[in-house]
Amino acid sequence: xxxxxxxxxxxxxxxxxxxxDENIKNPPSDDSYPMVSILFSKNxxxxxxxxxxxxxxxxxxxxxxxxIDLDDSHEVGKKLTPQDMEVMKKIxxxxxxxxxxxxxxxxxxxxxxxxxxxxxxxxxxxxxQGNNSSVANKFENDLMDFAKAIENENGYDGNNYKDILxxxxxxxxxxxxxxxxxxxHDYLKSKDLTEKYPPESALENSSQILYASCFDIEKDALGxxxxxxxxxxxxxxxxxxxxxxxxxxxxxxxxxxxxxxxxFYGVNDKYTIPGGG
Length: 277
Hints:
The chain is mostly helical. The protein has 13 helices and five strands.
């Protein structure tokens, strides 16, 4: 491979670090994690991903305790296996619910309580609950309330995003901001850039993992960062993906799907929970 081809490959992989300075590790805007996922990644609506990101954020804020009885890293494959179910059993969430919460956060916590009938539960038991159609129907209602709260808090249907979003399409300004988020995405995934501009605290480290989850690159980002918090340990066990699987499975078991309620379902039925409805 000649020198020109090598340079082309380096640029294509986003490894030309000379064009970046330490500001590359700063998020380009102060949008919430669900809104980053909705606006600047492939998740084009408010639904399961937004809910899972909110729960991850609540774990990071210690509003939800996360205890994991598993040392080894885990990765979910193309199909859900009995081993995945055993990993779910070893991940326990406990709702602490202390201090002031945003409406969407309170609704996410209430959704978990309604789904599990308890403040403490493991992911396997929650997954099984989603197979019950009455629980699934209640989950859908709760998800709809959560989605509306996200819209209201962020002005998603109002004027807050009219400069970057028009008729569901990014404006020229929106495309510029998305390009900045793409650079931040590349930083999160780049070993060279992360080593050059590392997170300076456990809090910043966890925040970067949360942003990586918005782009579905959380495992890549964690591979070049410290596993030093309950949140990062959950990501190490593929927890974000497991939450999405559990919630998608519940939607599959809704007895009568609503239309026009504003929820983005994006249901992937290859990850149905064993014993489903």
